[in-house]
Amino acid sequence: MNYPNWNKNLEPSLNSGQPAVDNRPLVLAVDDNHDNLELLTQILDLFGCECVGAVDGYSALSAAVDRVPDLIVLDICLPDIDGIELVKRLKQNPQLIHIPIVAVTALAKTEDRDRILQAGCIAYLSKPFNIKDLETIIRHHLNYQASLVEF
């Protein structure tokens, strides 16, 4: 059977005895709405990314420390600490300061956008976002040229 997302390079080697390594870029997706998070993780998977999800700021911070992502896609309105505070905390950690952060949020006013970008996000998309715009941002900031799904 042919599996469209199967990558033979990820198959474990029978000779080495070591598990397969996932070489896709790792993206941390953060959104407190489970439906939005599920949608985002499916989109990121279609883009060829490995995705880890978090539903609040503290779990996102913990996930980023445990396994440093290549990029973070972040909702700003979170239940515990807001996205702007999370960005500040991420940027205070020398191991995490380099990670590009893309805000995907319902905050759509110009002053919100400016505040989010000034906090340290490299890009801003308002919900509902255009999938092609997200793809462009991800390709640019990950320098990732794999064949992504056409929308």
Question: Summary?
Answer:
36% of the residues lie in helices and 15% in strands. With 151 residues, the chain is of the alpha/beta class. The longest helix is centred in the first third of the chain and has 13 residues, at 34-46.
Structural class: alpha/beta
* Broad shape: globular
Largest sheet: 5 strands, parallel
CATH superfamily: Response regulator
Low-confidence parts: 1-15, 145-149
Strand order of the largest sheet: 2-1-3-4-5
Distance between the termini: 25 Å
The figure for the number of domains is: 1
Overview of this protein structure:
There is one protein chain. By secondary structure, the protein is α/β, with parallel strands linked by helices. It has one domain: Rossmann fold, CATH 3.40.50. The protein has 5 helices and 5 strands. It has helices at residues 34-46, 57-66, 83-92, 110-119, 131-142; strands at 26-30, 50-54, 71-74, 101-105, 123-126. The protein has a 5-stranded parallel sheet, with helices on both faces.
Based on the model shown, name its key terms.
151 residues; alpha/beta; Rossmann fold; five-stranded parallel beta sheet; 5 strands; disordered C terminus
Summarize the SSE layout with pairings.
Elements: E1 26-30, H1 34-46, E2 50-54, H2 57-66, E3 71-74, H3 83-92, E4 101-105, H4 110-119, E5 123-126, H5 131-142
Parallel strand pairs: 1-2, 1-3, 3-4, 4-5
Helix pairs in contact: 2-3
